[in-house]
Design brief:
The chain is mostly helical. Helix content is 60%, strand content 0%. It has a domain of 28 residues. It starts with a helix and ends with a helix.
Length: 50
């Protein structure tokens, strides 16, 4: 619950979320400080979904 509070999630928010959604948010928050060497282009995205 502490980590959810740090994300600004209320008990009402959690009622409509799965654990997977909460885990995804926690992972994204942990990655906020990461610097990536490569930014995907539209061609990369098209190749991924192509």
């Amino acid at each position: 619950m502490l980590r959810c509070a740090e994300l600004g999630l209320s008990a009402e928010d959690l009622d409509s979320m799965t654990m997977g959604m909460v885990y995804d948010m926690l992972i994204e928050r942990a990655n906020d400080h990461e610097k990536y060497n490569y930014k995907a282009t539209q061609a990369d995205i098209d190749a991924f979904f192509g």
